[in-house]
Amino acid sequence: MTVTSPTQDPTTPARPRTPPARRRARRQGAGGRLAAWIAVVVFGSFALLPVYWLLATSFTPTQSTFQYPPKLIPTDLTLENFRRLVDNPQLLTYLVNSVVVSLITAVLSVIVAAYMAYAFAKHRFRGRKSLMSFVLASQLFPQSLLLVTLYGLFDLYGLLNSYAALVLSFTTFTLPLCVWMLKGFFDTIDDGIIEAAQIDHASRWRIVHSIVLPISAPGLVAAGLFAFVRGWNDFIFALTLAGPERQTLPPGLVNTFVGEAAAEWAPLMAASLITSIPVVVAFIALQRFLVGGIAAGAVKG
Amino acid sequence: MTTTRQRHTGRRLGDGAFVVMLVLPGLALLLAIVLYPLIAALVTAFFEQSLVLPGRTFAGTANIASVLEGDFLQLLNQTLWFTVGATVLPFAVGLGLALALNTGIRGQRVLRGVLLVPWLVPGVVVSFLWLWIFNSNYGVLNGVLQSLGLIDSPQAWLSQETSAMVALIIAKTWTSFPWVMVMLLAGLQTVPPELHEAAKVDGAGTIRRFFSVTVPHLRGIISVVLLLEFIWNFQHFDIIWVMTGGGPAGTTRTFAVAVYETAFHGLDLGKAGAIGLLWMVLLMLLVTVYVRFADPERAR
Q: Among B175, B168, B176, which residue's Cα sits nearest to residue B82?
């Protein structure tokens, strides 16, 4: 996704054809660079100033957030907000739930998706195209509408307020995602490897388990991380299908901070920061794996 | 190790049973937790059914009629405003940044990484952050605008009809533009530099080259990005629910919020299903129209 060739299109100086054209082209180059910087500064501020404000507020003492106009550069930094979060056992429960549910979702999604994706990538069978479209489309249906039935369905099986309900509901969006990511990954595996194994009389399952999946380890990890992040970020399913004992951080934070305690902005920003960190870390890891995975594929394939 | 059979089945042709076993777990899961719930939810539209009481009675088109006679047009109007705003604005920001980064300015890689952060954070965090920024009493937006002399007194942005919708669109834009940027940047990097060179030799200026070289080359990516953004925004829930809950006075209520509220606060599954049915029919119509216009070749 964010893996690109290092060769960028540089602001190439104009070809020296005729002097006026050359001067004009160069002026445009400078103008273009200026425009580029303006765009980066303006849009970049829009992107990053809120991040700064999140960081600044989470290290500001609560009473200092009740100042108007707010101090743009906080002077009295503190860890008080984070300490208050640690002292709240309910928030710890949400955190544990988030980790458990996202982890199980990721592992389950990758395992189920890997087999399906392998079939899509390396086998041609009737209904393959329509099945692939169905998998792709299945993540485009609105969650609030699915919930109209999912709630009753989980209730029927006594699964409301359980990890199982959260894992299953998260799988509605992580499974299609993993199938498509892994299919892309398996597509890059050279058929020759599989054929060679077939000639050596390896069974079909053995080919999958001893050759395809090990080669694809970086892809499996990448898909798993993506699924983890998507599960971690989910709000509506965890809000609806679980109560406080099983809820994950996003709905947990809404329940804790929105409403009665709506004024607790500093601890809320600290909690938001904590909730965001795993996602950002996962993404940094993911980027490495994507790069490594593609490089490995090039060597081995 | 069955040896003889394998030789006969050939290279890619799997035996049916093997493929079925590969596909079945995933397929069964998707049928059970996506397709069945979706169809069942749409069918609910024709029943009188409560979230908490067992049983249901056939109601014909009563639910649908009641939605159409009720706030349907308002919901449609508000959903479209949010969808169009939250699709166009991130596109503009993402395109601007993609073009800027593609000029090869210094620190391009680092910038691209840092600019992704708003896309990574959970929707709930996005909502909290912008709630705090737009806060009427101590919000930093009021503080900055007032010190610049642009407003006389702190504004309650989220309690006024228009500004509440704009605030939601801004928050959604903030978290959406990085994805647009990454997609467009990837597309831009596939434009062969020779095309620009050739156009330059022919005397085409920057703007001319943007419209006659860059845009045609990016057509495919642009239409996919806009389509997906449209679909996602048409169904967006998290930010609206946390920031305004559909308020003030229902003026930021969208289909997603209405379905959720009707089902889980109003406990009226039949009506929620009816809203959902109309919503999905509309989405399909809009997507079909879009595909016809944006991508006439693929539509055929």
A: B168
